[in-house]
Amino acid sequence: MSRLLSKLSPIMHRRSMSVRSFSSSMTGPYMLRSLKVNPSPGGVNIGKVLVFDPAKEELLELTDKAIPEEIIMTKATGASKGWGFFSDPQDSCILITDVMNPWSCKSNPKIFTLPPLTPLPSCQTDVIWSVAMSSCPDDDQDWVVGIKSLGDQLSFCRPRRDLRWTKITTPPDYFPTSNLMYSKKDRKFYLTGPGGHHLLSYDLHFKKSDKPEFHELEFRNFPESFKYDSEQSELFPSSCRTERLVESASGDERFLVKWYAKGCLDSRKISYETQRIMVFREEETTDGRFMCYTDDIGDMCIFVSKGEAFCIPASSFPGLKPNSIYFIGFGVGVYDLTTRTSSSFQAPTGALNYPWAPYWFPPSSS
Question: How far apart are CA 145 and CA 116, in angstroms?
């Protein structure tokens, strides 16, 4: 990690971009751009956190922040509800910390250490694909952590009650790159199937022997033009697609996001750029539950990245664009659902490339 930090830091010095210090007790959604650590002889690492504010499209700096020694050489593996997940390369323990929250205690960030993940037969746990939590660690004695590994293993842990992992095998070869999310409304964890046509759900009383509930999704109002283009895109080798299930903070609304990217050959490797994003709103009718295509989510904006997706009202944070998808992964930018176009942020070339943690974090306060 220290080598990565030293590699990233010079980018900000080569190009001019306004950087201001935090000046309020609350910040909107943000991306952690870089974390610079200055080791101290006394054993306390003091760091400088640089975050990007998508509403104001500017970098914000927080100085003199204590950085736990435990995460200095770890690898960021995910994010959920403002907390970062790290994997320790030495003992493979999972670390969960609020150090990525600019307003967490500057002198003593919180950190939870969970035992290493161990693979089931024919599975692996070295590559973590997605993570989700039922709540923030401070809020609930029944706090549950879920980790989806690349492949067929899903692991759950209830850290305040039992540090042992409950390891579950998902249907073989069917959910290898599915993204995990937690529904506050249903009190269940969900995995999206390929193409978003199916869901698996697991309740909070998980057991290794339990079978997940299988949900087949029915789609309505699918635009014919999108249907044809999407089918062609899925057949094209250099294109890819991923799905995210996201719920509003209140639990009143739920959306399925289909995110398409186009592959471009650059310097002998393929890089991906966002091509199209489609959103389906869950609607309950007398005939059942359906996912209905929409290009109007009103004042809402959705944030998707390698972390757990979330959505917030744009009007709560002036500068955010309503009816839009903010993305990190296939590029960094904003997708306008009305115009069906994506745009980049107003930042110097390279300023937002290779963020230290490629995740959006929800609003936080001191």
Answer: 13
Q: How many residues are present in the chain? A: 366
What does the alpha-carbon distance between residue 47 and residue 32 come to, in Å, rounded to a whole number?
13
Q: Does the residue 21 lie in any domain? A: no
CATH number at 171 reads 2.120.10
Note the Cα 299 to chain centre separation in Å. Answer: 21
Of all residues in the chain, the percent with pLDDT exceeding 70 is: 82
Contacts of 100 (CB under 8 A, 6+ apart): 32, 79, 82, 83, 84, 357, 361
Structurally, the chain folds into a number of domains equal to: 1
Cα 111 versus chain centre, distance: 19
For residue 347, name the pLDDT band (cuts at 50, 70, 90): low
Q: Examine residue 212 and state whether it is found in any structural domain, yes or no.
A: yes
Give the model confidence (pLDDT) of 93-138 as tens digits: 999 998 887 766 666 788 999 999 999 998 999 999 999 999 998 7
230, 233, 272, 341, 344 from 264: Cα distances, Å: 18, 14, 6, 18, 17
Query: What element of type H or E holds 47?
Result: strand 45-53
Contacts of 191 (CB under 8 A, 6+ apart): 148, 154, 170, 175, 178, 179, 180, 199, 200, 201, 212
Q: Strands 45-53, 30-38: parallel, antiparallel or unpaired by DSSP?
A: antiparallel
Phi, psi of 253 (to 5 degrees): -130, 145
Handedness of CA 122, 126, 130, 131 (dihedral sign): positive
Phi, psi of 356 (to 5 degrees): -60, -40
Judged against a pLDDT cut of 90, whether residue 72 lies above it is answered with: no
Q: What is the mean pLDDT of the chain?
A: 83
What is the DSSP code string of 130-150? Answer: EEEESS-TTT-TT--EEEEES
Q: Are the CB atoms for 1 and 73 separated by under 8 Å?
A: yes
**From CA 341, how far away is CA 320, in angstroms rounded?**
16
Q: Is residue 229 part of a domain?
A: yes
38: containing domain:
28-359
- CA angle (126, 137, 250) in 5-degree steps: 105
Does residue 16 sit within a domain?
Answer: no
Q: CA 189 to CA 193: how far, in whole Å?
A: 13
